[in-house]
Fold:
Amino acid sequence: MTYSNDMPILDKHVRSTAGLATELRFSVMRLRRRLVRERHPDNDLSLTAMAVLWVLHGRGDQTVGALATREQVRPPTMTRTVTALGERGLVERHDHPDDGRQVVVRITDAGRAVVLADAARRDRWLSMRLEELPSDERDILRRAAPILQRLAESEQTL
Amino acid sequence: MTYSNDMPILDKHVRSTAGLATELRFSVMRLRRRLVRERHPDNDLSLTAMAVLWVLHGRGDQTVGALATREQVRPPTMTRTVTALGERGLVERHDHPDDGRQVVVRITDAGRAVVLADAARRDRWLSMRLEELPSDERDILRRAAPILQRLAESEQTL
DNA sequence: TATAAGTCATTACCTTGCGTAACTATTCCC
DNA sequence: GGGAATAGTTACGCAAGGTAATGACTTATA
Structure:
């Protein structure tokens, strides 16, 4: 790995994996706060709820448990989110075909409309910031996003 | 930009900047939840409080306002965090030399000890996950971390 | 140079997102 | 068929953060 000369001195400790862990956790925490703050005013759904709609839209029906795992929340939290989405008519609950304990969550047409509206305005704030980046930095993030996702979903626990 | 063949189909929409924005925001949200959950049991400080100590350690004294901006929280929140750190003797408040409104926060020896202890165990969970990654993925994250940080701090607002 | 306007930090109060513990309903396994 | 495991839910609590209002000080203006 080589580093360009214009890299800030203070970022050098990122060279070690441990240093990277420290920087990454804080960067993720900070960016998340910013994202919550800059979310589009037309959209009163929480980011978690939007994430659920996106998953149902993109990957099809999911059980409550699967959604909880993906979003890294506990089952009761996902129950609440799904209930809230259901009350707005954005998702429906269905019985699982061959396991009576599970609940299958399905996005409705109204839910898809919300996803498409969101796609249209597409995280206005973040999209604009990303557009301003040089394309090589955008490429780095493009490749980083799925890695972050896999880290979040890692089976390993402390 | 080229994509390897083993890339999941669903990640292809990340090709567009808008798609990247969507993926990135959710990945960041999810990884942050995971990081909060997997934080080291010996460390009862919040991740925000730890971030503040790291900044004071690495970049020297900071005003309350500067810390709030860096951590992407509102001033009252940072006041609370600093107060909590102060009660544990990890930071001290000092008068600003030439602006009586501002408060300079300085890390104490005890605070530095906490940072060093944290550095020693270094986000155990995340470090371990990062060690498991192939080194090219780790390199991507190494380069992504400062970009995420800059995004969080961007002057632009929606 | 007096005062108005702006800024930094704080206090008080409130919302929200999420967790744990306990319970119900179902399924799996011997 | 009965005990153990699993999926989801209900009830309750807490922590992290926000907004609005206030006080202390500084800067700009008239």
User: Anything to note?
Assistant: Residues 46, 48, 73-74, 76-77, 80-81, 99-102 of chain B lie near DNA strand D (CB under 10 Å from a C1'). The first helix of chain B runs from residue 17 to 37. Strands of chain B lie at 62-63, 91-95, 103-107.
